[in-house]
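User: Structure with flavin-adenine dinucleotide, tokens only please.
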Amino acid sequence: MNFLNESQTLWRDTVHQFVEQEITREYIRKCDTERVYPYEGYAKIARAGWLKLLIPESAGGDGGDIFDYALMCEGTGKFGFDFATAVMVSTFTAMNIVHHGSKEQQEQFLVPFMEGKSRFSISISEPQAGSDAANTKTRATLENGQWVIRGQKLWCSGAAADNVVIAMLVRTGEGKSKHEGLSVLLIPNNTPGVTIRRLPTLARRATGTTEIFLDEARVPESAVLGKPGQGWSIITEHLELERIAVAAAYVGNAQTAVDDALRYAHERIQFDRAIYEFQVLRHMLADMQTQVDAARLLVYRAAALAAASTPCSREVAMAKLFASETLQTVSRQGMQILGGHGMLPEADMERYFREGMQSTIGGGTSQIQRTIIAKSMKI
Ligand SMILES: Cc1cc2nc3c(=O)[nH]c(=O)nc-3n(C[C@H](O)[C@H](O)[C@H](O)COP(=O)(O)OP(=O)(O)OC[C@H]3O[C@@H](n4cnc5c(N)ncnc54)[C@H](O)[C@@H]3O)c2cc1C
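Assistant:
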């Protein structure tokens, strides 16, 4: 049964074909192996006009809904979650400017972004603010019409690339709870006083993730997104779109892990037969595909609800939880099916496996998703 209508099917197929033929598996592997940001691939996506997806026509975009966006994320993730990350981090962060930016901010930041000339990163985490994301210590104070920022952010993906505007959660005031007094500032990554260091992480070797030191960095008062103090509500809304996007990309990557393992099982001969003939492996592959299908359905449900503006925190958490654990599980099983060959970069499976290991952490851990789901369960 196909849950997609004709135009969604066409769009999904277009993205998959583009990633296979224009971006290519080999390019994505090379960026990972060499730990270089995928500038050429990103530029191709920009030239195809896909950075305009989700952005309303009134703001210069092409419109489209979150379901279309999820299909794009699924396709761009097919040869590795990391490549999809480069595109997604920019696109889902851009939506914060669409939703909360002033007219001036939209003109200043969205126009070059849609042309592929600049990109976005989202910086929430800090050394002491991981799952406890509102425990923000980085502080911005207004001094002579400028925000002066002091502190340290951690794990900001894509922030070390060229021409990045970082949407950064900072503390600008105090309140009754730690969720109050937070704001999001738009900070170009070449701002004096901002030092960005790429981290030698297990996964995300191409897009890169970073630590950021802020030593009296200054941005104009107008760099605040929405109003001062609205930071937590902006980030809560942001995380819902981010989780749908990443969950869709996990599914795209997980499907390729299954496809690659299946192909290898047919090609690899041991004991005078293809290893696919061993029922133990066939059953493993059957479980893998079943899990990917289930993950995809959860993602499509969450995306469809979000596209219809129906409250869906629980469904989004379920999709994020299950899709990330699916990528982790099927890539580990894929490693087993590929035997020693799986250890080599050219087999790609070790890359999927590394991405799977980070997928249950980034964007909110599996434990946090389960907490959200459990909270929504009433007797
Ligand atoms: C590759 C990568 C890229 C990232 N990119 C970004 C980015 O672009 N922007 C950004 O802002 N952040 C980013 N992050 C940060 C990511 O969101 C955090 O790593 C994540 O939220 C978890 O925080 P932590 O690593 O500090 O773990 P911790 O919060 O310290 O958690 C450690 C363990 O304790 C568990 N735990 C913590 N609290 C609870 C609880 N209340 N109940 C049950 N279990 C709990 C966790 O589930 C985990 O198993 C990235 C992280 C990685 C690894």
